[in-house]
Amino acid sequence: MIETLGLVKQFNDFVAVNNLSFTVSPGEIYGLLGPNGSGKSTTMRMLLGLLRPTEGTARIMGHDIRTNIVAAKRVMGYVPEEPVLPERLTAWEYINYVADIWRVPRGSEREQEIEELLVLLDLRDASDDLIETYSKGMSRKTSLVAALIHKPRVLILDEVQAGIDPRGAATIKEILNGLRSRGATILMSTHVLEIAEQMCDRIGIINKGEMIAEGTMEELRVKAVGQSSLEEIFLGLTGGPDMQLIAKFLEDAGAST
Amino acid sequence: MSFPDLLILLKQDLLQTFRVRRVKGKRTEQKSALRRFLGPIVAVTIGVVIIWALVMFGPFLWPFIEDVLRSEGGLGIGATLFNALMLFALLGSIMISATTVGNSERMEYLMTMPISLRTLFLEKTIIIIFYNSMIWLVIGTPLFIGFSILSPYPYAFLSVPAFLVLMLVLVSIGVAIGGLLGLIFSRILAGRRALKQVGYALMSAIGILTGTFWYVSIYTDQSGEMFRFIFELADMVGLSSNLTPGYAVSVLTLGILVGVPLTLPELLVPVVYAVIAFGLVYATAIVSEEAHYSGWLASGSKRSSKVKVEIGERTWDPQPFRRLKFNNTISVSIWYNITSIRREARVFTQYLLGPIRLVIWMILPAIIAGESALDITGYFIIGAVIPFATLYGVYFAGYETVYEGKNLMNLQLAATNMQDYVKGKALSAVPFSLAASIIVSVIIAFISPSLILYLPVLVGSITFLTLASGSIAANAAAMGGDFKAERMITRQRGSAVQMPITGWSMIRAQLLPLVLGFLGIYGVVLVGVFIHPLLSYIAAPGFMALCYRLYGSYSHSAGVKLAQIEATKYL
Ligand SMILES: Nc1ncnc2c1ncn2[C@@H]1O[C@H](COP(=O)(O)OP(=O)(O)OP(=O)(O)O)[C@@H](O)[C@H]1O
Ligand SMILES: [Mg+2]
């Protein structure tokens, strides 16, 4: 369960997140959509205690992030937009490290679980290499395995599918669906509208830090009359490409070639 | 705070630095056992050599050492050394805690773990203390082992564990105070960008100057002239200097070694300091936590400018110095170099004042000799400006070439003429060494008017020496630079000496320019002084021409190396 209560984040004079309130219930995948720089990552980083909200707060499984962030972090798994991992550890070492911190009991059961996750995400072959040798997608998968190993009840995934191969993306989709049916609370952001449409139970669209539309696909369709696809709804709300400017650019570019 | 968490964090941090087991993976570059154990092997070798040397030659030295230490005030000398050790740790870590907090993005994976940030920052502080202690551990431990073998007193060997523990206490106090100072300082400057830059500059300058004066005071044996007021202050509030941490440590380590009987208070004072050290370290963790949450250190650099920048010219062609026309690559390189250094006041000051650390050793003899040596002081000062030229070359062209890091990719893709790019970097150091040489010239003009005649030659030669040094350093950087080193975090892992250019390359970067500078510039000046002034004006163009040749050829070979450097080196 994630409840955000009037979250505000201000960087100097710039308001990145403005009075955001939404709820994600157990057994639900909530998709956070919005243009670049609209405040998705900032919101997630506040939920994880990486940034202190300027105003407002949030509760994770009932733990207030302002007063009890350690307890909140204990139930959360997070895959950041750009995972920064300990470069001088191997994936195997890193995941065990994470498991130690979350007090997952050591033993063959834990090893087997790590092994299974690594195999599922095609990482087994690289898991004895230092993380610094990994490709982008491999780092993200490593980060995902680390987030899953302690069986979090709340998952926060910032563009987890970006840069993942099709097989990996399909695997992630199945895993997330499975976790949802077991009652996990999942908040994810993505720019791929098909993913949002297929996977998310509810969608929140934010723009310039403010929630401009929220609901299930059905509810969004009802609100945006005459627009049926998520892309149409999204562009309708946040603005489509500037065709005039594009035409001008192409003209200029054409002149120079 | 949770102790088991702390242990897990420490274990992982150390595992990353000292990896004993081989990495099994196929992708990872395998290091031979020798290379993996190189650090410990070197440390043990140094230790064994020190102990051996002491046992071999010590018996002659021992009576002297014992005499000095047992004499009135003898332990005070030890106290000065130990206080210096503490000050070292302090000065070396002034910005460390602030940097650690400021770069917390790099520890995001740690910060999302269910650990209180206090535990996390405590662990980082402990690691910093550990790195700062390493050098004393490697040098000090064998010294004490050796001396306790020599010492006839039955309990002398106790000085070894005493040293280990108390050295850690001293370094902890130093690191914690340094860290707190940096954090408090950042708090004061929070959110004020201009002030912050000035503050960083001041702070770095103070760090460099205090450090230098401290060495001077040890060297000239005035036992800390600069710090006398601190001791006087201590006296005034009833603390005698015998209560400094260094003294307490000196009594317990050197005192035990030479069998000075201990009193109960002398045993208790170190315990008090240990408690204080623990308190300070813990306080650093608390303040770091607060600093993180309140966002004093949140980097403002990500903020985009509020003023919209209009694109004025169609072809971008910055000219760093009006009037002087360079080709496009050189001028862009100069502009980029100066801009990226200038943006960070801390780096800028470090670069500008850095040479003072070296120079002080050259003018020290003149300072000590004092009045009597006024005649030759001018010559010493001429010598002092040479490191400015060579080190500016190393910083502006050597270090900055390394800090190009990922940008090398852009340069390679754009097929930039790297020779010109390197030239630009060397050129960007010229205004600064020119300024230094002019300042020095004015000083010389006052001290040794007889040298005035040679000042134009000096200024000219220094300019060309800077160019040569810059390209030599860039060439060394291209060979042995750690292109993944980041300027921002060079000190983050706690090692105060992690250099962008390592090992032999660093020596290569400095040695030739220094030799060239000293031979050349003294040659040019002395030829005039001893034979005929006119000769200086004949020799100088020769020296400049030589420097210019070196500048050309080293820029060329640096350029070739940089153009061919493989992407894995910097990505
Ligand atoms: N540390 C910071 N300091 C200043 N401004 C910041 C900082 N972090 C984020 N911002 C600003 O906050 C706004 C929201 O950023 P955020 O990263 O949350 O966007 P996002 O919705 O995740 O975008 P994207 O789709 O590109 O990932 C941006 O305008 C960004 O410039
Ligand atoms: Mg984002």
Describe this entry's structure for a reader.
The complex is a heterodimer of chains A (257) and B (571). Chain A is α/β, with parallel strands linked by helices. Chain A has a domain of 178 residues: Rossmann fold. Chain A contains ten helices and eleven strands. In chain A, the strands form two sheets. A six-stranded mixed sheet of chain A has the order 7-8-9-4-10-11, with helices on both faces. In chain A, strands 1, 2, 3, 5 and 6 form a five-stranded antiparallel sheet that branches. The longest helix of chain A is centred in the C-terminal third of the chain and has 16 residues. The model of chain A has no long low-confidence stretch (mean pLDDT 90). With 571 residues, chain B is an all-alpha fold. Chain B folds into two domains: 281 residues, no CATH class; 242 residues, no CATH class. Helix content of chain B is 74%, strand content 0%. Chain B contains 22 helices and no strands. In chain B, helix 3 packs across helix 7 and helix 15 packs antiparallel against helix 16. In chain B, 39% of the residues are buried. Chains A and B meet through helix 2 and helix 3 of A and helix 1 and helix 6 of B. Adenosine-5'-triphosphate sits at the interface of chains A and B.
How would you summarize the topology of this molecule?
The complex is a heterodimer of chains A (257) and B (571).
Chain A: E1 2-11, E2 14-20, E3 23-24, E4 28-33, H1 40-47, E5 55-60, E6 63-64, H2 69-74, E7 76-79, H3 91-101, H4 108-120, H5 136-148, E8 154-158, H6 166-181, E9 185-189, H7 193-199, E10 202-207, E11 210-215, H8 217-223, H9 230-238, H10 243-256
Parallel strand pairs in A: 4-9, 4-10, 7-8, 8-9
Antiparallel strand pairs in A: 1-2, 1-3, 1-5, 5-6, 10-11
Chain B: H1 3-17, H2 33-36, H3 38-70, H4 74-92, H5 96-102, H6 108-111, H7 117-150, H8 159-189, H9 193-219, H10 228-236, H11 245-257, H12 264-294, H13 328-342, H14 345-353, H15 356-369, H16 374-403, H17 407-413, H18 418-447, H19 455-480, H20 503-530, H21 533-564, H22 567-570
Helix pairs in contact in B: 1-7, 3-4, 3-7, 4-8, 4-9, 4-11, 5-7, 5-12, 7-8, 7-12, 8-11, 8-12, 9-14, 9-15, 11-12, 13-18, 15-16, 16-18, 16-19, 16-20, 18-19, 18-21, 19-20, 19-21, 20-21
Bound molecules: adenosine-5'-triphosphate and magnesium ion (MG).
